[in-house]
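As a representative case, the lines below give one protein's residues and fold tokens.
***
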Amino acid sequence: MDFEAYHKISWYPGHMLKAERELKEKLKLIDIAVILCDARAPLSSRNHQLETIFQNKAKLIILSKSDLADENQVAEWKHYFRAKGEGCISMHHKQQKILQKIPQLILDTATKYRKDVQGATTPLLRPIRAMIIGQPNVGKSSLINALIKKKRTQTGPRPGVTRHQQWVKLNDKLELMDTPGIMIPSIKTVETGLKLALIESLKDSIPGRDLLCEYLLHLTKQDIGLSLEHYRLKSIPQNAAEFIEEIGQKFGYLKQENEVIIDQASKRILQDYREGLIGKACIETAVHEDPE
């Protein structure tokens, strides 16, 4: 796929700029940043520019939606981050045992940082304050709702649902702040933008569903664990137009003239990927150099 043939993708609405400013204002109140990344694209779904403001805070990386990625590939990513000295776990919303361990892990990480890095010798006389950060739709509000076992923060399967920072008292020892998803102001490459749209950190309409289907078709031809076997096609489509046409015909997304309804067919393809029906894989592999 020739990525240079497409324009770079960007999406940084005004509420994100406002949220970033408010986040910086509250920085002095927090002890640890809990950074959520999508396990399918851990580097692309991580806002490294935003994280620079947390350089003097404890950090814990959580690879969310791990049920949609290959277990071995996720293990490689955990090794990658831990080798860089960053605490890292993986989880998805159905893993109750791991969810139950997260509060204590946040407390232990923050306490160890205070002792080993900041040189603290006495315990805090207040709860540890953790800020949950991440790009849109990586599962921040869903994680908090699962931890408190009831719905206190609004969630939704689209980017930009949480618009305000809100504190949630988890227990007597830990308070969490949910924050709006904040996108990178400038997405460096076309492929990074496509990855973010594929995992729904960007709206489909920004790159367009036809282009996303082209990119997904490209990924199925890579040796990462995605395939089109789910559709039982007679042959592998050569391009997105052929792919969308075949799926439209197969599932009956047709107009009266037997013409495929492009938007419905492409939406079906993307939804199938997001539900793990086209395979469970990381769409970027663990690397051994610092990300750009």
